[in-house]
Amino acid sequence: MSITSTIIDPLLHLHGVAAYSLVGALVFGEAAAFVGFVLPGETAVILGGVLAYRHSVSLTLMAAVVVAAAVIGDSVGYEVGRRYGQRLLKRPIFARHQAAIDGGRARLHKYGGRAVFLARFTAFLRAVMPGLAGTVRMPYRRFLPWNAAGGLIWGVGYTILGYLAGASYKTVENYAGKLSEVILAVVVLGLLTWVIWRRRRDRQQPAPDQPSSSK
């Protein structure tokens, strides 16, 4: 058994409550702890969509779980940032991400709630922007609508993306016979590789709104 199968197969054999719980927990934890950029929330949502295509879960219910977990997790992250953000940001784990954090703050000051919405679609900022919004004391009544809108579009969109990945696998499976599980692994691995590559690219790129320093 390949390393790919060892990682993916156990996830793809989840069903029902276990699948909803795992995907929901990963999405919730991505922003709730204010250090959630180490958790694969986006990857979990895609796998949740694949599970829906395999009839292990309901597509509608999985999307609802993802959206609820995203909105609630970000709200917890906002509160953590409001209460403890300044202290947490001084911890060593954030040192190498300082440019992105400063860029996130700059976006909040410049764009307000729109920055919260747009951050949902960038790996690192999705994890830390709710906490940053709390840190800069953005009013929660302004934060929540933009957070909910981003969570809804992102949650439904990526769940459907995973579902379509499963559908693409099925089309090929009709011609592949016994290679079906291998094909599924390749389709899912390709999608996850793209997500991981994009997450790394986002972390390495400096924030575009960060003002350049001058001597």
Quick one: how many beta strands?
Answer: 0
Q: What is the string of helix and strand elements?
A: HHHHHHHHH
Please report the number of helical segments. Answer: 9
Give the distance, in angstroms, between the N- and C-terminal Cα atoms: 57 Å
Shape, please? globular
| Approximate strand percentage | under 5%
Radius of gyration: 18 Å
Q: Assign a percent range to the helix content.
A: over 70%
Largest sheet: none
Average residue pLDDT: 77
Low-pLDDT residue spans:
1-7, 172-181, 210-215
Describe the fold and architecture.
The structure is a single chain. With 215 residues, the chain is mainly alpha-helical. Helix content is 76%, strand content 0%. It is built from nine helices and no strands. The protein has helices at residues 3-12, 16-32, 41-53, 59-88, 98-111, 113-119, 123-135, 140-173, 180-204. It is globular, with a radius of gyration of 18 Å.
Topology of helices and strands:
Layout: H1 3-12, H2 16-32, H3 41-53, H4 59-88, H5 98-111, H6 113-119, H7 123-135, H8 140-173, H9 180-204
Helix pairs in contact: 1-9, 2-3, 2-4, 3-4, 3-8, 3-9, 4-7, 4-8, 5-6, 5-7, 6-7, 6-8, 8-9
Write a compact overview of the structure shown.
This protein is 76% helix and 0% strand. It has helices at 3-12, 16-32, 41-53, 59-88, 98-111, 113-119, 123-135, 140-173, 180-204.
Features:
215 residues, mainly alpha, 9 helices, disordered N terminus
